[in-house]
Design brief:
Blueprint (H helix, E strand, L loop, with lengths): L22 E5 L3 E6 L13 E7 L2 E2 L1 E2 L13 E9 L8 E3 L4 E4 L13 E9 L5 E15 L25
Parallel strand pairs: 2-10, 5-6
Antiparallel strand pairs: 1-3, 3-4, 3-8, 6-9, 7-8, 9-10
């Protein structure tokens, strides 16, 4: 017997080090399973969105959702471009978490015959001095959980009834 899920919670801990110049990219949903009919037609895209945060050392950068190239960025900002294969990217990304998180809503329109669509995100970064720090690629992969085919109708089940004269077990 399953009850109704009333609430969930999660926490993400990201290890960074002040003074370090390492770039850390955090994507929270890089692998997602889509429910589908047995012909491959996806029945729901719920939960397929993704969020990105970027850090240089211990400094969290600000998302610039209108940037399409590194020259569009100011210091301590990051931008993202995307390329999809057999699925459609949500084309209205937003900045959330006080502008620190780059959020893409749910994907859509997966190709029926493609069982493993994907989206490649190219994240470009400017550091505190306004210098380009290159591009980091992250790939969000999708798989389909296909409904099984309807099986043949089975025959009637046999019923077995067990009864005992005494309900005592001796050891």
């Amino acid at each position: 017997n399953q009850g109704t899920l009333l609430a969930t919670d999660s926490i993400t801990i990201i290890g960074t080090k002040d003074g370090s110049d390492a770039i850390t990219v955090v994507g929270d949903n890089l692998s997602h399973t889509l429910p589908a009919e047995n012909n491959g037609s996806v029945t729901s895209y719920a939960g397929s969105g993704i969020n990105f945060e970027v850090y240089i050392g211990g400094t969290q950068l600000t998302a610039n959702t209108s940037a399409t190239q590194v020259s569009d960025l100011s210091a301590n900002q990051f931008g993202i471009t995307e390329s999809a294969s057999d699925i459609t990217v949500n084309n209205s990304p937003s900045a959330t978490n006080s502008g620190k998180t780059y959020t893409f809503g749910v994907a859509s329109a997966a190709t029926q015959s493609a069982d493993n669509p994907s989206i490649t995100f190219s994240i470009f970064v400017k550091d505190s001095a306004g210098n380009s720090r290159g591009t980091i690629k992250q790939v969000q992969t999708f798989s389909k959980s296909k409904k099984g085919s309807t099986g043949a109708t089975g025959t009637g089940a046999k019923v077995v009834t067990l009864s005992a004269d005494k309900y005592i077990i001796t050891y």
